[in-house]
Design a protein that fits this description.
alpha/beta; Rossmann fold; six-stranded parallel beta sheet; 13 strands; about 15% strand
Length: about 375
């Protein structure tokens, strides 16, 4: 480990092929690496970070999220035992946890990131995480010197549900990667020729995909179009979604894709007539940001954190009103002036969400935790 390292970053959540929380950790650490030279990263997936100035201390492969529940349990045990010992022996002054998996009873200041509390909002969708979010997470956040929330919505959730002091919670928005997600006219065909709507995200009930299918069926009766659904989820809900496609006679119009690499995802965004994200709950809503960065018009819901992300650059709908959703989708499908306006607004909006800005805010939170007396 480099002699200058005074901060550890617990990135043990990064798996072999990072998605979601792993991607957040990788992007944030890469950006931090550009502005700090005093930290060490704990991760089993060194290759995911590319070339870093910071040293990487290997963690057990068995603790990766790739191994499901077993991996999560082993990672929690490793955090409370091996990571605790490593931190003590290394003489580190602080620890950044990129997810709420910190060290209990640790004497050094910790900054802990909490992305959302969706398992508490939608308990049936996250049965295995109930004990963790009800017992362990609040303890970790209370002992953390500073808590980072992905949005004002998440901040309010943390303060209300866990009674964490508002004074130590900071909103640090995630960013998007402009080297991956960007507008490219060469990839964008005429959106009114073979138009398609795109959904990107997990397939879980709170994502509201069944209502999206109902709205899509309404739109398709008025104008030919397709829908691409990219994502995976709980088998029971995936079956429900596929069964609804069959029942509604949409088999030829709906395409399901599993997770794809970033270049392929960018092309999906860029070529889509409209990105539709009808979620009932999000801690942030990164796909909305990615779509806007690709110049794609967005229809999303005016609930939870999504207005913070989309601002005035998307059409906002009531997530429980199928007709409202269908009307917004049809407007984008048929109004070229609206498409141009949403594209312009979206490209302007995303400029405020950069990983550099996220890293600078997180760096300030780390410095604050090392020098403040907050508890």
């Amino acid at each position: 480990m480099a002699g200058k390292a005074r901060v550890g970053i617990n990135a043990s959540v990064v798996g072999e092929n990072p998605t979601g929380l792993g991607v957040y950790s990788v992007k944030l650490i890469r950006a931090l690496d550009q502005i700090r030279d005093d930290f060490v990263v704990y991760s089993s997936s060194a290759q995911a970070f590319g070339t870093l100035r910071a040293p990487i201390e290997r963690t057990p492969v068995a603790t990766r999220p790739d191994f499901g529940l077993r991996g999560h349990l082993l990672r929690l045990i490793w955090t409370q035992s091996v990571l605790r010992l490593r931190v003590q022996l290394s003489g580190l002054r602080g620890l950044l946890n990129t997810v709420p998996e910190g060290i209990l009873g640790c004497s050094i200041p910790q900054v802990t990131v909490v992305h959302d509390l969706l398992p508490l909002r939608f308990p049936p969708e996250y049965p295995r995480q109930q004990h963790y979010f009800r017992q362990l997470v609040p303890r970790i956040l209370r002992i953390s010197r500073v808590v980072s929330a992905d949005s004002d919505f998440t901040l309010s959730d943390v303060v209300e549900r866990y009674k964490v002091s508002r004074a130590k919670v900071r909103v640090i928005y995630p960013g998007y990667d402009p080297d991956v997600f960007f507008e490219n006219g060469a990839d964008a065909p005429d959106p009114f020729e073979d138009p398609y709507f795109l959904y990107v995200g997990n397939l879980l009930p709170h994502k509201n995909v069944l209502r999206l299918l109902e709205a899509f069926a309404i739109v398709r009766k008025r104008k030919p179009c397709r829908l691409i659904i990219r994502g995976e989820g709980r088998p029971a809900y995936v079956r429900a979604v596929r069964n609804q496609v069959k029942t509604m006679g949409l088999g030829e119009a709906v395409t399901f894709l599993n997770y794809v690499d970033e270049p392929t995802l960018r092309k999906l965004y860029t070529r889509a007539t409209c990105f539709v994200f009808p979620s009932l709950g999000e801690g942030f809503g990164l796909p909305v940001l990615e779509a806007m960065a690709c110049g794609t018009p967005v229809v999303t819901t005016g609930v939870c954190s999504l207005p913070e992300v989309a601002g005035d650059a998307a059409l906002m709908v009531d997530p429980f009103d199928t007709v409202n959703l269908a009307d917004a989708m049809y407007r984008v499908l048929t109004d070229y002036g609206l498409v141009k306006d949403l594209r312009r607004r979206g490209l302007e909006r995303v400029r405020t969400f950069t990983w550099r800005r996220s890293a600078e805010a997180m760096s300030a939170a780390l410095d604050e935790s090392l020098g403040s007396g907050l508890t």
